[in-house]
Design goal:
Blueprint (H helix, E strand, L loop, with lengths): L5 E4 L9 H16 L3 E6 L9 H14 L5 E5 L4 H14 L2 E4 L3 H13 L28 E4 L6 E6 L3 E6 L7 E3 L7 H11 L4 E5 L6 H11 L5 E5 L2 E2 L15 H6 L4 H10 L12 H7 L10 E2 L2 H14 L2 H14 L8 H8 L6 H12 L6 H7 L5 H11 L6 H15 L3 H13 L7 H7 L2 H8 L3
Parallel strand pairs: 1-2, 2-3, 9-10, 11-12
Antiparallel strand pairs: 4-5, 5-8, 6-7
The structure holds glutamic acid.
Amino acid sequence: MTGKVRTRIAPSPTGFLHLGTARTALYSWAYARHHGGEFVLRIEDTDVARSTQDSTDQILASMHWLGLDYDEGPIYQMQRLERYREVIAQMLEAGTAYHCYCTPAELDEMREAQRARGEKTLYDRRWRPEPGKVLPPVPEGVPPVVRFCNPPEGDVTWNDLVKGEITINNREIDDLIILRPDGVPTYNFAVVVDDWDMAITHVFRGDEHINNTPWQINIFRALGAPLPQFGHVPVILGDDGQKLSKRRGAVSVTAYEENGYLPEAMLNYLARLGWSHGDDELFTREQMVSWFDGSHLSKSPAQWDAAKLAWVNAQYIKAKPDDALAPLVAAQLQKRGIAADERLPAICALFKDRCETTVALADWAAAFYADVTPSEADLAQHVADAVKPVIATLAEKLASVAWEKVSIAAAIKEVLAEHSVKMPVLAMPVRVLLMGTPQTPSLDSVLAIFSREKVIERLKRA
Ligand code: GLU
C-alpha cells in the first residue's frame, strides 16, 4: 500500500442519490481531502436489469450539486468485465474458486431440506473440489456459476473505523457466487477487484454491508491483495424511528435541491448526522475537511430531523449574499413561469430572514412579479369599509411622491396624521392588498420595491 489515502463512493444506479449514500460520499470525500488523498467515484451497474442511465445522470448531477468533486471516475463496472473474468480465471486456476452446476430447483430443494432440519440455509459445497472427493457428473446444458472457496472455519475479524472490532465466523457464511452464468460478476466479488485495482485504502459505507465484509476480506486474502480499512456507518432513521425510506418522505438529494435547500446547508446537516465536532452545528466545508479525521463517528443510528435541517438551511440563506441568493430564487420562479428582474436581490435582502428555503423566498418574490389574490377572510378582517378612505388618501399621495423609501415613509406618516389612525390600521390592509398577507416586513421597504403604478393599481382594489 502506498501512503496515499484513497477513498471511494460506489453507488448503484438504480435510483436517485439517496441521502444515506450522499452522507457516506461526504465522509469518504472529507476523509480523502483531510489527508490530502484522492476520492474515486465508481458506478456499480452490474445489476443490469435495474440500472439506468437516467439514475447515473441523476447521481452525477447530485454529486456535482453537493460539490463532492472526485479525482477519478465515474468508473463503470460494466466496462470492467474483462478484468473480472481475468481474475476469475486466475482464481479457478489457483483453486480459490470453482464451477458449480446446481440448478435453481436443486438449490431450492437443498434449502428446503435444511429448513426442515432447522439448519441455516447455506450452500452445501457439493461442487467444491476437495482432495479425495468425487464431484457429481457435469450435467448437460446447465450453465455453471463460479463460487468462491470461502474458508469453512475460523473467524474473520476487522477493526471497523466506526464500530470497533467486529468478528464473524466463517461457519455463518457460505461459498458465495462470484460470477453469474451470464458472465457478470456479483457485488461482493467486483467490489474487491475494484477496491484492489483502484488502490482504495479506506472504505466507508452503510452498515447494511457488514455481513458482506467477511466475504470481501476472504476474497482480498485469496487474491493476496492488501486490505483496506472498513468503516460502516449506521443507517439514518426517519422521524418514526424506522429506516428512512421513500414512504417516509423525501430521500433523494434531488428532492432537496428542488425544494429550495442549499447544497452547503445539506452538506452541513448530513455531516452532523452521524458525526460531530464538539458542539459545532454550523461549519463550512473547509472546516469539516480540516476536522474530519475519521474519529467522532457515531456508532448508533442517526435520526433524520426535518425541522433541524430547515433551521440549518435558514441560517445559510440568511448568511448568503443577496446577489448569490437571487439566481437560486430566480430558478424557482422560473419553474412557475415567472421571469425575475434586477429587483430580486433587494427582495432577497428584505425577505430572507423569514425564509427556510429558496422556495419560500420565491413565494414572497412572486407577489412582486405575478398577481396576488388575498383571501376573503383577510379582506374581510383587514380591509373594512372604515379604512377604505384612508387607503384612498394613501393612493393619492403616493401618486406624486418621489419613489424611494424615505419619501414613501413620510407619505404614510402624513396619511396617518390626517386620518388620526395608528400604523396597523393602515399597514394591515395595504399589506393584504399588495402582498396577499398581513404579515410582511416594514411597509415602506415593501412598497419601495414595487413600481408606483403597481402599488396604486392594487390599492385601488380596496
Ligand atoms: N453499490 C453498493 C451500494 O450502493 C456499494 C457498497 C460499497 O460501498 O461497497 O450499496
